[in-house]
Design a protein that fits this description.
The chain is mainly alpha-helical. The protein has one domain. It is built from 3 helices and 2 strands. The chain has a two-stranded antiparallel ribbon. A hairpin with a 2-residue loop joins strand 1 and strand 2.
């Protein structure tokens, strides 16, 4: 059984990964799709502007990438702390 400090280190590392993923998600979905949309309006992407693309498709694609990154990184973290399945 792992000691309490090892458990705390594992969960702190996991929370740091979650914080980074949430920050990226917020930047892409709210930042690029809503707040920065007027600045991105002049950049054409697929027949529309970049701000609209981020709001409609880009944020979904980035969210999927975040899911795969999180799964990969937590599997690596599990192996580092000896709690893999």
């Amino acid at each position: 059984m792992a000691d309490n400090s090892s458990n705390n280190a594992y969960w702190q590392a996991n929370l740091n990964i979650i914080k980074v993923c949430l920050a990226i998600w917020a930047l892409v979905s709210f930042g690029f799709g809503i707040l920065l949309r007027p600045l991105l309006k002049g950049i054409p992407v697929g027949g529309t502007d970049l701000g609209f693309w981020f709001a409609q498709q880009g944020s979904i694609l980035v969210f999927l990438a975040i899911i795969f990154f999180y799964a990969w990184r937590v599997n690596k973290l599990d192996a580092e702390h000896g709690v893999e399945e």
